[in-house]
Amino acid sequence: MENSLRAFSFFVIFSLLYIHCQGARQTQDLKCGACRALVDEMEWEISQVDPKKMIQTGSFRINPDGSQSIREVPLARSEGHLLELMEGICEKMKEYGERVDPSSSRKTYTRITSRDGKAMDLSDGALDSRVTAQLKFSCETIVEQYEDELIEFFAHETDNVKDKLCSKRTDLCDHALKMPHDEL
Known about the structure:
Number of strands: 5
Radius of gyration: 22 Å
Order of helices and strands: HEEHEEEHHH
Shape: elongated
Number of helices: 5
Strand content: 15-25%
Helix content: 40-55%
Distance between the termini: 59 Å
Strand order of the largest sheet: 4-3-5
């Protein structure tokens, strides 16, 4: 009797621990997916702005020597434009669906609606309003918590922003270096 009680207790503790670890991994997958989707959407929006468009930044005050501290920067990567993009970027999360890797049971989030109207392969993806709501909430949380980092990266970095921001800077995707790089 005592051995069966111990075995049952061990089973219950093990089961609870397993469930807790699964929940933590799902939360990590969601935050990582939101960060990666956020970077994809920001990069796409930035690419849609004419690279020749420039904006003046700096102080419009006249210095004692008669000069002004004004410089021209590309509009697409200006702080004002990036802030404007970040205000509505999380609305795009409703265009993402969830995919589960059958070998690892890890969840990834990929675009399920095309930006240009072309058909997309949705065979192993699922569109669920609960998932898109969670993805949107995670995106909004990331924008709120990492606003300065987002502006810094998108204003200056152009190469491998997804891994640099989501994995190295914020640790939202500590497993991302093992993930295949997706191209949307």
